[in-house]
Amino acid sequence: MLDIGGTWLTAEDRQLLRQPQVGGLILFARNIDHPRQVLDLCRAVRAERPDLLIAVDQEGGRVQRLRQGFVRLPAMREFAHHSDAVELARACGWLMATEVLAAGLDFSFAPVLDLDHQRSAVIGARAFEAAPERAADLAAAFIGGMHAAGMSATGKHFPGHGWAEADSHVAIPRDERSLEEIRQCDLLPFRRLAPTLDAVMPAHVIYPQVDSQPAGFSQRWLQEVLRGELGFSGVIFSDDLSMAGAHVAGDAAARIEAALSAGCDMGLVCNDRAAAELAVSALQRLAVKPSPRLARMRARSVIAQDYKQNPRWLSALGALRGAGLV
């Protein structure tokens, strides 16, 4: 999965998207002007590759790429202050998914299942809660709303990024806790929601008491713990392999190979076209075939453009506004 530079496809973009090793496109704020433009862009992408997955980060709070013409969603931590938090989280998941699907995309990489330990600035209010059981309850409701709208859900960042203080965008974070400590706390939402989640994104965090590699490059984490212990059978997406936390594996070719060898079904290479091209070349050389699991991430509903007249839309928006969340 890679990205493009602007709000429309260039000839170079089209050529790259035609490569069978490219399985997805992720949109960033620079790719987005307003809902109609996003829909037109997605249609142009599908004209080149109808099978391509189109994704975005539309978590809410400070991580929301679709803004103009879209509801400004709350940070997930804000739900914890309300007595009807579970129902509000469900309404928000449905509303977010409806807007993203109506714009022509397949899914948002959401929700965050990290815990807010008051240690990680990069996670912070993106997390639902500090308490693992409560975080799992709110995330389950949010996922239920996404599924009701027709969108697959991706839990991130396995097995938990909330304890490590460094930001994996610019550094290589470490979490010195034991596997048992992580099992008893940060792993709990992933364990609870493993049967419900369609996909998981591992953290670019090293847990040295478990493995010397970041979780996204670790067979111990992805194969033994996530697949084996938790019984997860869905898609595994790497986090962005251009982030500093991924550089321990080498150049983009080495990173994509390490991620797929560890058990990822798809590697993300974003904001670095040369790295994306290097990763594509590596996959061509390795003759990698697409994972059949990826098909579950396609949009399950076609949302009509008049969705804002839908009584459920009006009810969900009214509930969130009544709680002061939007």
From TrEMBL:
It comes from the Bacteria. It is found in: Cytoplasm. PROSITE patterns: GLYCOSYL_HYDROL_F3 (PS00775). The keyword Nucleus does not apply. Substrate binds at residues 57, 65, 126, 156-157. Its EC number is 3.2.1.52. It is an enzyme of class 3 (hydrolase). Keywords: Cell cycle, Cell division, Cell shape, Cell wall biogenesis/degradation, Cytoplasm, Glycosidase, Hydrolase, Peptidoglycan synthesis. Pfam families: Glyco_hydro_3. Plays a role in peptidoglycan recycling by cleaving the terminal beta-1,4-linked N-acetylglucosamine (GlcNAc) from peptide-linked peptidoglycan fragments, giving rise to free GlcNAc, anhydro-N-acetylmuramic acid and anhydro-N-acetylmuramic acid-linked peptides. PANTHER family: BETA-HEXOSAMINIDASE, BETA-HEXOSAMINIDASE-RELATED. Belongs to the glycosyl hydrolase 3 family. NagZ subfamily. HAMAP family: NagZ. This is Beta-hexosaminidase. The lineage of its organism: Bacteria, Pseudomonadati, Pseudomonadota, Gammaproteobacteria, Pseudomonadales. The gene is nagZ.
